[in-house]
Each structure stands twice: as structure tokens, then as C-alpha cells.
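Anyone opening a protein record will find just a pair of labelled lines. A complete record is shown below as an example:
=====
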Amino acid sequence: MKPQKIIVFLPAFNEEDSIADVIRNVPRSFDGAKTVEVIVIDDGSTDNTIKTAKAAGADGTVSMPVNMGLGAAVRKGLEECYCRGADIGVMIDADGEYPAEQIPELVKPILQGEADYTMGSRFMGTIKGMRLHRRFGNYLFTLLQAILLKKWLYDGQSGMRAFSRNALKHAEIIHDYNYAQVLTLNLVRKGFKVIEVPIRYKVRSTGTSFITFRKYMSNVLPAVWKEMRRPVKKIKSFQQNNRDDKEISYKEA
């Protein structure tokens, strides 16, 4: 397993109370990682998110000119990872709900060539403390994704994900409000293999989520419809390229 350059990015909007702990909990050395960098994508915060992130050890920060939405921030994070030469990009929310210490487990299927794209699954791990309306929303939208993709998923709304370099290059998010559904639909429809990895969930203890159920429904459903209607080009995944290279080497031998 060749060591890889891993870049972890945190989309953040007014998360000064939680972002430092997330950054400090990112493992900087583990099997398969050549280097691990952390960057923050600040979505127009009006508090001390950037200052706090730098003090906690962030390797870089990118500031959006105004609050543009989580989808726009994640899109920028994927772009930054690719442009900065990441072999694997990891996204984790800055609110402390997701276990940064489990990043090695999240990237392992990509390092081992088993997947192009992984999602940390709270419903395969632990969801103790998650409010009932959030569970219902997660079940509903994950079921929708599963039906559209004809592939069973447990946690389609996860805020903890990892991407191979090829997935970083080809991932598209077609709207700014959110990313969760359209990103997975886009990558899987293009032929990238997704694997879910069990993670531990922690209830947010600081700040508030910008997402409301009504706004989520009115923004996300039209975006899902738009994503499914537009044609996408199949992309050779990392695993397919590896298989092709092996077949060529076998033929040459």
C-alpha cells in the first residue's frame, strides 16, 4: 500500500466553539498516510472561526466572500483538495458531531483499492441522542437515494466522507444549499464505487444547524430531480484503472 497524501477539509460557518477540537482530533499519522493536512473552508463566518482554526493547527484556510451555502463550501473543499495534490480528500463537519479520530477507518477502503468514495455511517455505528425528526429525515432521504440508485444505503446524509483523487476530480454538486444527496447520486451514476463505514455519532453541543426540514425539502428535492434528469458520463474508477493496468502487465508478461 503506497503512502498517500491526505487532505482533510472542514466546511465551517460560525463554528468557533467546536472547530478547534475537531482539528486537534484529526490523526496526523497513520498507516497509508504519507502526509495529512487540514484546511478550513470558511463559508462567510462572522465569528472567530478562522482565527480559532489557525490557532488549533489548521494548515490552510479558504474564505468564501459571503455565506454561500454548505453545497458551495463542500464544492470548494473538493476543488481545493484536488488542486493541492491530494491523493485522498476527506470531508468532516466542523461542529464536532463526527469522530475525526475515525478518519483512518474512513479512508482505509480507498487506500486498499476497494472503493472510490466512502461515507461514515451513523446508522451502521451509533446514533444515540439523535433527535426523532432528524432520524426521520435521514431515513426518508436515504431511502430516496437508495431507490434512485438501486443500491442500499444506510446514511445518505453523513457529514463525514472520503474521496479518491479521481472522485475529487469528477464530483459535481449542482446547487449551493446542500450536497448530501446530489453528490452521492452524481458519483455513483458516474460509476464510482461507494462503501459505508460505521462511525460513532455525537450530539452537537455547541452552535445550531442552519438546516430546517421545510427548507431542506424545498431545496433538496428539486436538486435531486435535476441531478437525475441530466445525463452523466461514466468515468473509469480507480479500481477499474488498476484492473486495466494489471491486465496489460499480464499480457506483456
Notes: Residues 57 and 253 are 49 Å apart (CA to CA). The beta strands are 4-12, 33-42, 60-63, 88-92, 117-126, 160-164, 194-200. Confidence is low (pLDDT under 50) at residues 242-253.
